[in-house]
Amino acid sequence: MKKTFKTLRAITNDKTLSFNQKARYLSLEAENMLPYPDLDAETAQALDQRVICDMYEGHAPYKPRYVLPDFAVVLKNGSEYLELPIPQTLDEAINTLMIAYHHTPSVTGMPVYIGQLDDLLLPFCDHISDDALYRKIKLFWRYLDRVLPDAFMHANIGPSDNRVARTILRVDAELKQIAPNLTFFYDPDITSDEILDIATANIVECSKPHIGNHPVHVKNFDERGYGIVSCYNVLPIAGGASTLTRVNLKEVAKRADSVDHFFDTLLPHYMELNFKLTEARVDYLFNHSNFFDSFLVTEGWIDRDRFTVMYGIYAMAEAVNILQDLAGNKGCYGHDDAANQIGYRMSAMMEEIVANRPLENVWRGHAMLHAQAGISIDDGATPGVRIPYGTEPDPVTHIQALAPHHKHYASGISEILTIDETIKNNPAAMTQLCKGAFASGFHEFTANVASNDLVRVTGYMIRLSDVAKFQACEGSRTNTTALGAEAAQNTGILNRKPRVVGNELAPRYGQ
Amino acid sequence: MLRATVNKILTYSVVDGPGNRMVIFLQGCNFACAACHNPYTIGVCDDCGDCLPVCEPKALTLQSGKITFDATLCTDCDNCLGICPISASPMVQQMNVDDILEIARKHHPFLTGITVSGGEATLQLKFITALFTAIKADPDLSNLTCFIDTNGHLGPKGWSQILPVTDGVMMDVKALDPTLHRTLTGQGNAKLLRAARIVFDAGKLYELRFMAAPDVNDTEKEITALADFALSLSPQIRIRINAFQLHGVKGKARDWNAMDKARVDQITTRLNAFGLQNIVTPAMYL
């Protein structure tokens, strides 16, 4: 108890956290005083040793990790519970969304998905001038960043070329805010070259948006569609992900005495333990927490049957290099074809295991494989299947080395390409890289340009100037700067060539 | 079969023309610029063998009087470049058109086009003409644009051969004063100024490149002359100002000062004042 009090006191008296940030950390401490959902001894031990990991989501999952409400429903019907009439004008539609976001749960308490904004708002734009639309979107954008200051909050636009998408891109480049994060869906049959050029010029300007490979995602989902949320998580709309658990491939590889031992015995073994961990968490959410009694379900924003689970893996680079050592081979992950082939084999095998392991209370009856992009306390473990920071080859070689992995990770995979700033005189090169990446099988294209203040830490944005301020103990307005600062210190993300990138989530106070 | 002497091929470059480009650096140059940033591309190896003793991994050997290079043994120490008495490189490859098409095919989705650079690419005019012609004729590759990065030291006959299969030319202007130009490069500039006009008239002058070095070629007289010449082509002509940096430079330009952003901005303002509207400045300074 004494230790607990000490932690709680440290939170309440912290100099750098806002009162909202303190309230969140206090609530996490409270939740974690509860016993963990029942795990068998072997699974508990693997979790304790962090061979498998629950992302520190908390001991009592009383809300899904990621929720993607079908915001079209609330715009069409209003909300009885929230006493919202059906919106008739653009102002009313935006206002309705702003209210809806406050009722959208997630692991962090902030919404991670704010909708396919062009589809949602276009029907209200018929009599709105370009200038009025620009001013309204700008105020909307300012509201999002100031009131919901979390870089995991994610807006989607595209694939069509339309006024709302163009205005959002214009405002986003102008304001250079951390929030919201933004993905543009690209479909070569639908998207105009012109709006793709605007999007890639924005990347050069402010490292946003991500570009999503729309045709490949569409195939993996159903007619209700998908959204890209938080750090590149691709999930069903009107549902989401109940939980995200993950296997640390480096820890698995460290326990192997040969390559065969890893593939034949250890990987299937630890993957099964991670399924058990997942089941325990899903069971609590569905059978004990009463979450699905919410108006979100009765009013049709979400559907209990549309929640998948994300089956994460990470530290593939370290795992492959360990296996190369065991086999007496020299080549490194990301640079050597034989090393890369071991990685592709891992991805294919894990996809098959995930597809064939039935799970209850999970959309389509099985999990979706995910290349997990790291959290701020990860040390010596590279996110997902990425090439370790500071050792990446040129962007084209980089893409070619990792492209064969992408098809295996239906719920999201991401690489961050760091591009030197000479590209500022030549944004057409960014467009070409993006098209090349998609033609090679990439599911998502994300790039940082070296000199931008606004940079990406594994999937979300931070401002380098905020990190410097935070480290000087002045505190930061946005939740993710703290994560970025922690990630920068622990994971070497600022060593990235030429700089930055790192993490997804601050799971606990005081790491 | 037609072969080129290739110093290096890059499949990712954003500074050699529009979009992402595959760049083929051809060996050998007819200028000897004081400010050359890759002087080891100037000469053509004469198999003297001076580099053999400094090549520790024995990637270089002498076989039947010819230097042979085994890239798999090379450790990139560049000792051979340091000792070469004629600013050449023994680490070159002989490649034919098909070799290069094969690389282009492998990277095709990422490429906006290809650029031949050097050295001085037009010294291997027959080869680049054959290369560009082959790209235009290949259904898989014909969407790639073909650019030349050149010092312009090529006569009208040469241009009439290569321009029909060329999409764009980037041409260096080191100085407008002929004497200064000769001091800086070892050659006069009449040929290149004429070439710039020929290429411009063909609608293929993508940009003029002005390598500005403080107190060397950034005088008011030089800037005025550059503006006059550029205006005689078009006020819209794209002029890229490259800021002289010491990286890679050997010889007398080692004593020059690096060009800073403040001075580049002054030059830009001056050129704008003359009515030139399309000045591109460096995205970064080292």
Describe this structure in words.
The complex is a heterodimer of chains A (511) and B (286). By secondary structure, chain A is of the alpha/beta class. Chain A has helices spanning 2-12, 19-31, 41-48, 71-77, 90-101, 117-121, 130-147, 163-175, 193-206, 214-220, 249-254, 259-287, 295-298, 316-326, 337-355, 395-406, 428-439, 464-471, 479-491, and strands spanning 52-53, 66-68, 113-116, 154-157, 181-186, 210-213, 226-229, 233-236, 239-248, 307-314, 368-371, 416-419, 444-449, 454-457, 460-463. In chain A, helix 17 (428-439) links the parallel strand 12 (416-419) and strand 13 (444-449). In chain A, helix 18 packs across helix 19. Chain A starts with a helix and ends in a 20-residue tail after the last helix. The mean pLDDT of chain B is 94. In chain B, the strands form two sheets. A nine-stranded mixed β-sheet of chain B has the order 5-1-2-6-7-8-9-10-11, with helices on one face. Chain B has a two-stranded antiparallel sheet with strand order 3-4. Chain B is α/β, with parallel strands linked by helices and 286 residues long. Chain B folds into two domains: 3-39 and 95-280, TIM Barrel, CATH 3.20.20; 46-83, Alpha-Beta Plaits (2-Layer Sandwich). In chain B, helix 2 (97-106) packs across helix 3. In chain B, helix 8 (261-273) links the parallel strand 10 and strand 11. The termini of chain B are far apart. Chain B is globular and about 60 Å long. The interface between A and B is medium-sized, with 25 and 17 residues.
